[in-house]
Amino acid sequence: MEPPSIAVIIPVRDGAKLIHRQLAALKAQSHKDFEIVVSDNGSTDDTVAVVQRQQSEFKSLRCVDSSGTPGVAHARNVGIASTEAEIVLICDADDAVSQTWVEAHVDTLREFDASTGPLCLTVEGELTGSTWFNEAVPVSLGHKSYSPGCNMGFRKAVLNAVGPFDETLRRGQEDVDYGWRLVVLPREVVNAV
Question: Is 57:29 a contact under the CB 8 Å cutoff?
Fold first, then answer.
């Protein structure tokens, strides 16, 4: 059985000074077989040029233009729409994923429809020892669980069933909204897709 195809989506706007850290972290992954889609949401700095300079270092690294509508939700939606991969992972340009990040998500998505993981906090690039959501999936407003936008994974069929991120939520909470919609998705629909 052929392993599932995997895409890592990185929404970004004006990330030229930081995205190299995330790309270096993705280059160091224990699982190497994935594409990277940088969804540029109208950068006015050298973000696209920084990414293009690193394309030869990856199996597949490309930029897509998501400047049509401002916001991370739109950037994620454009990135997701641009790939046919069976597994979609999403991280942020100003973070650095752990060395086993792709592998952990893929292993989880063999059994579950969505995945997330702990967030290790840093100050000026140095680990603080503080971790968010180390023991359980986060819950927003004491209501339902969700995946933080900087560390989420899905089967593409589930993304298609849930629909796109809500682009009207431009000041945050689009990840919470998405998680809540995922939680209430009928189990039969999830299993049928």
Answer: no
